[in-house]
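Weekly structure sync, notes
Attendees: PL (lead), two postdocs, one rotation student
Agenda item 3: pending single-chain targets
PL asked that the sequence for the first pending target be pasted directly into the notes so everyone works from the same version. It is reproduced below exactly as submitted, 276 residues in total.
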Amino acid sequence: MKYLNYISLAILLWSCEQTVYDNPEYTLVFEDNFRSESIDESKWNFEIGTGCQYGPNLNGWGNFEDQYYKKENASIVDNDFLQIEAKEENVLYSDACGFNQTKSYTSARLNTKNKFDFTYGKVEASIKFDKAIGLWHAFWMLPSFPQEIWPYSGEIDIIEFANREGEYFYAGTMHHTGPLIGTDFPYQNENYFNSFHVYSIEWDLSTIKWYVDDVLIQNVVRTSSSVLDDNWPFDKEFHLILNTAVGGTLGGPPNLADQSQFMLVDYVRVYQKISN
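Predicted structure, written out during the meeting:
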């Protein structure tokens, strides 16, 4: 979710019915439909705190974010959806950097590291985003066993949504070392928030394709330039991440009062080619 060197993709939005991927060349290798009373911890880890446990430069998760992540802010609602809730509440904490401070917001962040790590496939999730000012929702991927620091190790953002002071931003992004710079485009349509949409990528040895509701948005090819080919960390095991940040470099100044503050996930699925 950091913005240094990146390709950022404008995403146009369509609605579609939720269906299982119908392709005989692929098989389902990971699925969570959240049809349970609690989050399945055989699939998901909870990340707690401010990111300082990963190094002092990652306090605020490297993006100057305002929230403290808590397990309690993620739950299953109606035995049907994963809900990540951002709250305006004070939390006094001590962290690995030696800080004793108070955060004014809490939220949740989940990942599949060491529980489901994979290389290549079709990744998709059906998600509904709320639009409180300052929220920064994301469905993304990081390498599970990085041999280099970020961004050299790579990052794939399947979808990021932020409401920055009333401007709605949607983006799909890949981070690496190449000097590739794009722009996030505002998409002003409040009706979009009334329903779920499916965000997905198809990822293989040489390409990453982004889709919204099965409509191709962007196709990045490894060999399209020497910069990409020489700086391509997307051939290793990655894991999935779902989170809602508050504030930060993309969210901007938060204002959660009297506004819906949730990210709802209907399902997450990963398919891989049978030949894999």
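Discussion points:
- The radius of gyration is 18 Å.
- The chain has a mean pLDDT of 84.
Action: rotation student to compare against the earlier draft before next sync.
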